[in-house]
Amino acid sequence: MDIDSTAVADGTEDSNAKSDSSSVVIETRSLSKVYRDFWGRKKVQALKPLDIEVKQGEIFGLLGPNGSGKSTTIKLILGLLFPTSGRVLVFDQDATETKKNERIGYLPEESYLYKFLNAEETLDFYGRLFDLSAAERAARVDELIKMVGLDKARHRQLREYSKGMTRRVGLAQALVNDPDLIMLDEPTTGLDPIGTREMKDLILRLRDEGKTVLLCSHQLADVQDVCDRVAILHQGELKELGRVDELLKVKDVTEIHARGLSDAAKKEIQEVIQRNGGTTDYIDNPTATMEELFLQIVRESDERPGMRRVSERELQEGDK
């Protein structure tokens, strides 16, 4: 009794509770969803009791194959579906409270936009829905169009846009209200490797600005590049939850990066490993990803138009 009264009196316990609560943007508590047929009989359990927290200022990945419950979870968070049991809290409010949506930006897997409008008109229309003034809309529209790389196509009708360009407009539309929480469903769909890299850089930029991002994607490389934590769903059930760097770490393997080693030095290192009871799986040069190679070639092509990139192997064959 003395401990409780002391904690309340000095405000320590109460302030900590408020601090912890305010740092959680999305919280699900034993959240589940069952779809039923016309007669009310259980048809499928799309989501089994789910407990996750998405914290302020992080990029949280929601992963899983088709039918794993990702879309159901997103719809429950947005308040588009009612849970069968459990609760969803967004900004400490029940997900069914529509007022919270003023602080949310949502990019669905398929963007439904008016094809007869251009980019400026589209963003101005959505700005009106959020009651932005004419001056605010003009400034915000110009900022977003430049942010997503559509400055040269701002006056073209959306019917003339490629799928990747339409995706960029969809992202700009999701950001028009300067949201605190941004929910992205397959954001890199239809984008080429350069557009994909730019989209990932933009997502990281949003996090650096203090935004919270919930990312749903089938592109596992994209998730690995940008997400801080992930939840993996399968058949409506949470199978794994944690930080990306910790989940991917192979704990019984030691990796050493070095430059300029001679063959003799490599052999000596291998002997040291063996003397200490370890085994050497391989000693070789590391490989880049296909994305890194592609972007490097494009950059070099921009710097030296008309010149073909020559590989190290071709240089060696030329010397012979």
TrEMBL record:
Domain ABC transporter, residue spans: 26-260
Concerning SMART domains, the annotation shows: AAA (SM00382)
Question: Which superkingdom?
Answer: Bacteria
* UniProt cross-references to Pfam families, sorted A to Z: ABC_tran
Ordered alphabetically, the record's keywords are: ATP-binding, Hydrolase, Nucleotide-binding, Transport
Q: Which CDD domains match?
A: ABC_DR_subfamily_A
Enzyme Commission code? 3.6.3.-
Under the heading InterPro entries, the entry gives:
AAA+_ATPase, ABC_transporter-like_ATP-bd, ABC_Transporter_VariousFunc, P-loop_NTPase
Q: Does the keyword Oxidoreductase apply?
A: no
GO MF annotations, alphabetized: ATP binding; ATP hydrolysis activity
Annotated segments matching region Disordered: 1-20
State the PANTHER family in the record: ABC TRANSPORTER ATP-BINDING PROTEIN ALBC-RELATED
Q: What is this protein called?
A: Putative ABC transporter ATP-binding protein YxlF
Species, as recorded: Rosistilla carotiformis
